[in-house]
Amino acid sequence: MNKQDKKYANYLSILHEELVPAMGCTEPIAIAYAAAMARKVLGELPERVEIEASDNIIKNVKSVVVPNTGNLKGIKAAAVAGIVAGDADKILEVISKVDDAGKKAIAEFIETKEVNIYPSKSDLIFDIVVNVFSGELSASVQISNYHTNIVSITKNGEIVLSNITCDEEVNILQKTDRSIMTVKDIIDFADSVEIDEVKAVLQRQIDYNMAIAEEGIKDDWGANIGSVLLKTYGNDVKIRAKAMAAAGSDARMSGCELPVVIVSGSGNQGLTASVPVIEFAKELKVDQEALYRALIVSNLVTIHQKTGIGRLSAYCGAISAGVGAGAGIAWLHGGKFEEIAHTIVNALAIVSGIICDGAKPSCAGKIASAVDAGILGFYMYENGQQFYGGDGIIQKGVENTIKNVGRLGSIGMRETDKEIIKIMLDR
């Protein structure tokens, strides 16, 4: 791809927009970010807090430990952490610097102040509103559609910031257009990009995500899926790739205070898209530049799939990332468009339809299954095997299959999503 090509600049922007650090599961961290911003606008510690959250936010925050809170879970813990000890300027690392005094203050606020949680008044899938009050003073911050997208700020009833509309279409246009993405162009970009333009962001992904993966293996976190895999099946790279990604998820779902570089707004997807590719790169003894290019393939293939599905869905995002990892692994083995396209289609045929029932330890098991499908998808093609158009939701041509999965995740699973939420909230 020529550097003067508009698509080159687009892909570069997408990587820099998506591969950002976050500490903790990104939905509670988005709540903490909105809450920290609301407290900043208010100008003092509030006496009363009201949080409005869409069902998908409630689903993804309910069961996950919020880091730096003393193992507290849920919306209330996330919001209070942001209010009491957050730094809004750090965005998705808003509660990364909380000392023991801060943790104590969080617990005291929860015990002594009024904090109420309500369903969102909007029909948006991703919607958070934090209202804070102190005497006659008030402030409100709304985040919609993606984790850092502040669409409204008010102070004492007066509008401080407004994006006019919260429509998904409008807000997506604030970021680089993802509709131009194709697997063929992704591979072209990965093969031709000047490495110095992506080196820093990719090296940060490697450093951060491997650090938390290693922590997940070393200590007791969540369901210890990574350790179970290694103890049961051995240390072969195909096992290690799954185990390390799962271990990173187990650690972050259980409140580990190490940051992760996210993909498509998700730390679990960031881990799944990167750690297996890094493990295969070590095994194959490729140079650092080859690893960077393989990570570009994996990250962008993940983002491409998620564009049609949306940020939050009943479709497990780890599946998209596991398929992306399979594409990156195929690239490391010398695969070009044909090999990578078949890897993607094969993997999607195997695991599409695994549900998202919120952030919690079982995400690690789903990550292991997703990575396994990505690896199997590649080895199937290498052994002359493939799934064909007409096999279920698979359609001839990788872009057609990705489009079908987007339709499944964004439209087909809407009712599934509603039932999942009803089950989780015992409605």
Question: Which helices and strands, and how do they pair?
Answer:
Elements lengths: L5 H13 L2 E2 L3 H17 L5 E6 L1 H7 L12 H12 L14 H13 L1 E6 L7 E8 L2 E8 L5 E6 L2 E5 L5 H5 L10 H10 L6 H20 L6 H9 L3 H17 L6 E2 L5 H18 L3 H22 L7 H16 L4 H15 L11 H20 L15 H15 L1 H11 L3
Parallel strand pairs: 2-3
Antiparallel strand pairs: 1-8, 2-4, 4-5, 5-6, 6-7
Helix pairs in contact: 1-12, 2-4, 3-17, 4-5, 7-12, 8-10, 8-11, 9-10, 10-11, 10-15, 11-12, 11-13, 11-15, 12-13, 12-16, 13-14, 13-15, 14-15, 14-16
Biggest sheet, in brief?
6 strands, mixed
Radius of gyration: 21 Å
Q: Which class of secondary structure composition applies to the elements?
A: alpha+beta
Percentage of residues assigned to helices: 55-70%
Q: State the strand order across the main sheet.
A: 3-2-4-5-6-7
pLDDT < 50 stretches: 166-174
Task: Give the count of helical stretches.
Answer: 17
In the CATH scheme, what's the topology name of the largest domain? 2-methylcitrate dehydratase PrpD
CATH class of the largest domain: Mainly Alpha
| Ends apart, CA distance between termini | 52 Å
SSE order in H/E notation?
Answer: HEHEHHHEEEEEHHHHHEHHHHHHH
CATH architecture of the largest domain: Orthogonal Bundle
Average pLDDT works out at: 92
Shape: globular
Report the count of strand segments. Answer: 8
Count of domain modules: 2
Strand percent estimate? 5-15%
